[in-house]
## 1
Amino acid sequence: MDLPPHLQDRIVCSIQAAVKYEVPANILLAVAEKEGGKPGQWVKNSNGTYDIGSMQFNTAYLSDLTKYGITSEHVAQPGCYSYALAAWRLSMHIRNDCGDLWTKASNYHSYTPHLNAQYKFDLMRRAARWEKWLNARFATRDVTFQTSKR
């Protein structure tokens, strides 16, 4: 890969999670870059919650997930788990929230309109760069409008 070793996990884990949860890989990569977390990292927010791990997953979301055995320790650990959890959460925002795709994806950070708008602007810029990077390295094709001939 043409990336420093510390970014390889971010990219591999993000792409795997994006495929699994059917979210655009460039958006998940942009969120991962923007969040910029590290395994084991805990960042305290002004509202008393914490952002944990590589994807800075907020502890406010963990209370609903404890019934599935998901703990803050799982989210903080190295590896792909936090990327998969973030992709799952992004997929829920994309499927269930109101607004355009970018507003929904930016809900990962905040539902507060001005905070969402700031995050969205930067997320779009980063996602565009990641889209170019992905297109240069992976063979893809748009199958949205293709029909089969019999």
## 2
Amino acid sequence: MSSVPAGGPTPSNPTGELLRLDQVTTYYDQMRILEGISLNVNEGELVCLLGGNASGKSTTLKTILGIVRPRSGRVLLAGQDVTQWPVPQRIATGMAIVPENRRLFGQLTVRENLELGAVLRRGESLAEDFDRVHELFPRLLERRSQLAGTLSGGEQQMVAMGRALMSRPRLLLMDEPSMGLSPALVLQNFQIIKTIHATGVAVLMVEQNATMALSIADRGYVLSTGEIVLEGPAADLLQDEDLKRAYLGR
């Protein structure tokens, strides 16, 4: 079995590395949430971060974005230490997020929500980006003038993903993309994630649906109470007996 307990820090900028968390420890007030976690995502790679409720998955994404600052450790983007950078500066480097529960502006139209994804690209033509989003999500072209708050859950997830793609990200963070969707829509959603990944966008996906996430990922990490307890190629993690018992119900 090639999935092993996570080790210590590794060199900060290997060839092709896009994101690295290096021994990151994060607190909320006096409560420790993450304890010395190290992970990386390479250019064009799809990596999933698994774990149960309160394991620290969403806090990891917030730390990457800069919403939460680590007590110790570093966040590196393309080899550059961004630990103290504010959120907008990190987004401007080519990072985007599809947040948990979509977080759309319900009183704005679909098109207006999509435009917000490109807010840091003032003065640039967005026609090509709208075309790409509508190719992935034809329904959004039909719904472009509809208020986002009146859409179905599946359609709102399409808007959230399309909004993130409007920024032309190098790294796409996804927080529980299957949450609240029917089984049929979950399958469709993951097929779209595969399509996005195939265009060369690196993806770090937080997900509780371990089987589905690992079926499309290159590698995976498993968080438990704020520590990475397993990591390895996705195919190997799917066969890991401890992971099966804990997360796959086998």
## 3
Amino acid sequence: MTAPWTEWDHILKIDPDKELVDGETFADVCQTGTDALEIGGTLDITSEKMSRVIEACAEYDVPLYQEPSNPAVVVDDEAVDGFLVPVVFNAGDMAWMTGFHKEWVKSDHVDWGRTTTEGYIILNPDSSVGQLTEADCALDADDVAAYAEIAEQMFGQEIVYLEYSGMLGDPEKVQAAADAIDDAALFYGGGIHDYDSAHTMASEADVVVVGDLVHDVGVDAVRDTVEAAKDA
């Protein structure tokens, strides 16, 4: 079976700890044209906050995925199409490579049929996720390419995810990762704020992930990035 993300160009990531722009609803969010919604965040995430967003989006015809930051926030809801679980390859804290995952497996509640890991490479040292994972972000294009190749060839990752989290990244590094992998889907996230930035990154990556924009600016801006991802 072909993985659904091989047909995607754009993901909208919803942070359950953040509010939408005044006057906008999750119905508006679900009508932006994005290929999928991914629910997840780094700080102050709870299963209750996750459930609130899932419930609000479940009635709309948009694929719905959770990206849990730790096992305690996983919500086993039939409305969720799947779980995309980060494995941070350049983490200094190994809990983000296997530790949290081990605890989830020990709970005996992993639905492997709906679970896919994402080979994360974090590249913004000032981001919350960069600091939390103690990621080594001092990577040049060759380092990024090597991590991407390791993720696919040694660890069998179906998704390689370059995460700049809050800042627009270096297209050269995105291209280097794209050149290093064969079949894995390359996700890019970070700093996409308008048509041009989305088009630039979508020209290198298979899928762009847009997050803060929906909380900070709103759904019209998100629609512009969807259009750019489709045009790239």
## 4
Amino acid sequence: MDRRAFLAGAAGLLAAPLAAEAQPAGKVPRVGFLFFGSPGPSVELDAFRQGLRELGYVEGQNIAIVVRFAGGRVERLPDLAAELVRLKPDVIVTPSTPPSLSAKQATSTIPIVFAGIADPVGAGLISNFARPGGEHHRDGKQQR
């Protein structure tokens, strides 16, 4: 499966929880997208938007997408991830390892959907494939 198809599928996976959760009247779901690269044409972002459109989500109408680019400077990623977290998106999407790691360090409460990572366990993004987000107890605390 190519990266474009994966991201279009990821859009579908993201849309299900956004639609399933009862959104307060008038609340538009917000997706944060964190890139390592520079602004400009993006196959990943185009595929993601197309996947959302196919599911009935239109940017600016019933979904908001907030994008941040690090311009190829890894040292900018932590600040950009923190900025996205302050904007309180419903989910953060990252298309590679460096922004995924920065997003993980910036939040433990906002779900992170990542793509293009060969070994997420080895990178330290997830503890295992069976329970990528860890186990949750009744009190809501996460155990790794």
